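Posted in: Structural Biology > Protein-Ligand Complexes

Title: Requesting predicted complex, adenosine monophosphate in pocket

I'd be grateful if someone could produce the 3D structure tokens for the following input. Sequence and ligand are given below.
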Amino acid sequence: MTFKDLGLSEDLLKAVTAMGFEKPSEIQEKSIPDLLGTEKDYVGLAQTGTGKTAAFGLPMIQQIDTDYRAIQGLILCPTRELCIQIAKEMSAYAKYADGVKIVAVYGGASISDQIRAIKGGANIIVGTPGRTIDLIGRKALKFESVSKVVLDEADEMLNMGFKEDINEILESTPAFKRVWLFSATMPREVERIASNYMEDPIKVTVGTKNSSAANIDHKFCLVNGRDKYFALKRFIDHYPGLFGIVFCRTRRDTQEVATKLMNDGYSADALHGDLSQGQRDAVMGKFRKKTIQILVATDVAARGIDVDDITHVFHYDLPDEIESYTHRSGRTARAGKSGISIALIAPAKSGKIKLVEKQIGKKLELVKAPSGQDICGMQLMKLIKNVNEVEVNEKGIAPFVAQIHESLEGYSKEELIERFVSVEFNRFLKAYEKAGDINVDPSKMRSGRDSDDRGSSRRRDSGSETNVNRVFINVGKMDGFENKGQLLGFICNQAGIDGGSVGKIDLFDSFSFMGVDEGVGERLISAMNGKNIEDRDIRVEFSQDKPQGERSGGRRNGGDRRSGGGDRRGGGGDRRGRTSSSNSGGGGRNFRERRRRN
Ligand code: AMP
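-- Reply #1 --
Done. Output follows.
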């Protein structure tokens, strides 16, 4: 099958040829004819890296009427990075499609520049939900002529708390529009969007539902927590051409692992929410250009990273939400290439492996952290390969040859080989000279997930004895927090603190208490006071006494909980993840997800 067979116009065929695409990918083959030839809604289950941008982008561009100066296509995606990338890719496809204008709108960039670009005559808008809503509010974006709406990475958008925004944006588009939804996984929430906004959609799956790309090797390595970093280093040393991402659960771990790698001489850097947008852009720029070999990132910060040629994804910890595993590992094996995903797992957490396997529909293969000998062997073979393949610049070295011969005269061929190899190689021999086996016996694995989760909550609870302070916060179950983990995730997100610094949590209907490490209470108070949750001021303060239960806590602290004037009707189920900050500035809204920790 060729691109021509799919029914694409000459302009677009010229563009895909210029981009070096030889034949359509599976999702393109399966989608483009339908998206061009029918007026039906569409659901595509496909991972990032499968070529889905072209799958929806080419048909969308082809159906734009450039005589008509109006927005006809809208593409919503979860992150700024992805938004920029889609717009760039779409512009390349539209290069020869005379006059099709594509404008990207996303947060963290000048809104007036974006308004100017829209006024310049946009045919297709690529936007993140938050900024799109902002621009609708400012009447800069009007969607009454939009005939195609793409929801890209729909599962990620919902994960990030954009459900209401998506609904609001879709409501602002005309009834005649078609919706094309793309998602790597199909959780119930995505299905709900499909049933609310689509009529009998065409469904196309690449790979199996919720699964990861077929060309990813999923592995796990059983090591004790204290040996994880060493195991990671061993894998990195074992794959000399590695270009990869290490995912960590918390910002603190992310920074720590990245700093350790840098100190140990690896070409690495960190990407997490404590960095400014400028810093994050700089790190991403380096990673895209492959100036850094290893990116250490949190799930949230790494969203929308679509960099080709990533060979390895490491899970320093498995994610809290198992679905994130699919997204993480999908960062490798893009554009038909293959990739390796390796989870470093402590025995106490090994119950989660089953959940991952269920999610991706595949078994994870147990692999051992390479031994010192394995690593030295790999590095040696790489050196020999380089020697075999190197292009000798005879002219360049000519002035030095006589001197080199003279200096090395006394060595035999064997001695020379040994010496040259040792120059490159002693570093590894020394590093792994005394390296023992850090692999844990698989018989120590746990079988159920409960063991793991109970373990961690026990540890968290036992932290209450050691946490020096307790704080009160006037949010609770009525704000939509169904469990302590959700509240913890919310607090960590909002205040930028690490989950490990919070101990026992008592979650009540309208308020909660938390044990916190020294200094953390002050940070919570300064970060959270002034924010609001559904128009109600959040209040955090130190608590003098330990609560005996909700009643006593309620009497003491509950009296003024409505002081912010908010209305808590309805249990707050839909309010999840939305707060606004009094200092968010520029009319921008502050959307955060609540469920994750970083
Ligand atoms: P996507 O899944 O849209 O993010 O695409 C992943 C990568 O594959 C991007 O770098 C695309 O430019 C590239 N790509 C998309 N379609 C093709 C194709 N048919 N042949 C080769 N590369 C492609």
